Fold each of these.
Amino acid sequence: MEKNKAILPNILTWARKKSPWILHFNSGGCNGCDIELLSLLTPSYDIERFGILNEASPRHADILVCTGPVTEQVRPRLKRIYDQIPEPKWVLAVGSCSCSGGVFSGAYNILGGIDKLLPVDMYVPGCPCRPETIIDGIIKLVESIQ
Amino acid sequence: MNILHMLFEILIFPGFAFVLFTALFFHWLDRKLIARFQGRIGPPWYQPVADLIKLFSKEDILPVGTNEVFATLLPLVSFAFVMTASFYLPFAVPTTQSFEGDIIVVIFLLSMPSLLYFLAGWITSGVYSILGGNRSLLQYFSYEVLFLLAISGTVITSGSWSLAGIRSAQLTSGSYFLPQLLGFFLTVSGLIGKLKRDPYDIPKAKSEMVAGPLTEFSGKKLGLWQLTNQLQTVVGLSFLVHTYFGGYWQMGTVGGFFTFYLLLILLQCLLSAISAIYARFRIDQLIRLNWYALIPLALIHNLFLVLK
Amino acid sequence: MKLRSYFYLLPNIVRAFFSKPDTVNYPSITLEVADRFRGSVRIKAQNCVGCSLCVRDCPAQALELEKESKNSFRLIHYRDRCTYCGQCELSCRFDAIFLDNEYDEPSSNRAHFIVTLVERVPEE
């Protein structure tokens, strides 16, 4: 009986680790990180071998991959998109802008970093990040799933 | 003993569990094949299982104002429709009694999920879902006619409205695949529209419509919708095998089963290749292509078969 | 010929199917980086004099100098703010600060991104 209790959560964790679907959202950045992120879908990086799919609807996604310093205008939308992702969900901040505001930090119209609005699980530095770093970030995030 | 045997046939082989397993396997095969056609590696073999378990364990949310009973029933009912259709298309041993006219039943059961798909878009009342639902209905009026016209070529030649009759006619005259190559490709074109696969994936076009009617679905309901689509692929393909290749061949149970499976895999390769080659049509292009070119072609083909 | 345009991808997918995939199996095989790639900020600690030229020129304010006296200072680099533009390398007159070929690792904690590049305390 004890063993059966342990098996089901194990299967769930395994399934969550093996099929993290990502939702890509740009919260007002320069598009540099977005281009690097979309290059993950190309044959040379091919994130589908980790089971990752780029979903378009937040209701299908598990991981919110967010780029850009959160501008004041996009802030309520980002919050709404985050709320629309069903539990369990994670947030990956891609690029210096989304980690801390980057070159825009201190500007009047930005929030400066996603972690001021949402709980961020993994930060990926770089301006723009290399695709390898984003893969590393996603893998690290997926490995930390309990 | 007899009841146990029947239960085994319905629930495990070649019924429920086996068809589900086949659907998941063909979903993986499809994704892997498209990945390989594009020069990628593709997902590992356990991918559909992991996706399904993950989706079923996720939180289920619906927008405010959606009829929750309907939203729960629609994927279940469409899943039931496709599952019922799978019992009429036996893999190796017939599970249900074949009767005159069961081909119409199968076509009806296969076309119902598309209507429910439209309803799913309509009740969730998002902008994308309503637009996707409208598009799926528009598409429905073009490919469904083509599918029925093209499949009736085999009915005309065999002179029977039952799957068993078509099969036994092909056992004597040879398979209809080569003599009716045009009809076969027209049927495949209709089937792609039914499955909403790549050249005809106008209702759920990811780059313009988010996910079409399924935009607002999440968790278990989304998992069921996806499972329905995967099942529909397998059932549609085995329908093609039954009508154009003569079903399972007369090579004993095991041999018949393997040839059936091999034919299914080959047809899946064809579908995946078409998905990998062609880009999405626009809705007006699709309707113009269907009503101006493919449906007249199917009519002429049928006329030719009748005169012959 | 218009008909040809419907089939010109067919040989491509057949070739792709029967040849090895183009995918670089990244975590097991590391990709080569160009020589001019601007990666992490590193420093030759013995060259640094704490002149704060790099701090002044940094566009993202990713460098910070805590200076107490000429011989006692601390140069801190905030990796999460850095844009890897290489301005600090250009500004440095003592050949101390430079950009490496390696890229920074992701982390779940932002405290990992605060790196002390030089820490000089006066010798007793």
Amino acid sequence: MTVPLEYFVIVAAALFMTGAVGFLIRRNLLVLLMSIELMLNAVNLTLVAFNRQHVGGHAGQIFTFFIIAIAAAEAAVGLAIVLAFFRLRSTVRSDDADLLRN
Amino acid sequence: MNKLELAFFGLCSVIALLGAIVTVGAKNPIRGAMGLLSTIIGIAGLYLMLAAEFLAAIQLLVYAGAVVILFLFVIMLLGPSAQSKRDARGAVARYVGAAALLVSGLGAMALVMRTQPSTPTALPAVPPQFGTIESIGHELFSTALVPFELSGALLLVAVIGAVAVARGKQVDPTLLPAADAKPAQTPSPTARTAGQTKEARS
């Protein structure tokens, strides 16, 4: 008997909550982007685990493939925005991103 | 349940969860990137357990090989200012929000666990060709062909957009009047002080 499905889902839920809590409590833009990557990874793990239960097709794995591609694009554009913001304000704190305030 | 499989599962999930906690909690972003790397490696191990060999390889190639390296490059470019200073402004609201999210998440998990049958769901046997490159590639180029091509277009747009955003304003340094005025100006105070000291000495 293999490791049951629930264990994988619990690990994925714990990973997702770690990422979400990190996104809420941290203010460093780089750490925020890393927390987003954590959450995307947790969702990927859930998709792959459920696809393992329904072995008739590969829908979950295909979804995961596309999510990985989109996460890579998101990281590239997000880090470019962080660099542009740093050039403007010389900081990476998300609280200082108030250029449009007032 | 196979002891060895359970041990591998425990190892991978502990690596992933510890990495996630380091990512979120580390003060230094480089340590955070290393934590993200460990999470990614742990999840790749879990993919291997779930008979997704192709995705495990993609995970290591794309995440560990590209995304984490990109993070490290940006941290290197920012230098010491990548580590933002801690201050208490609005900290209470953020921590209360995070605690509320944690409580609701744990509550949802507990509710789901209560509706589950007491015996855990056993996974079915893996058919041959499940999760291999051949079968995923076949599906990718037949049923998922349109999104596959669109993701190629998305990556192209992301590359161009990242370069356009990160490049900033490019100024030719030879056109700046300050560029050739500066080297002429900067030696003068030192020359003056040198002259003064020479005068004082004489």
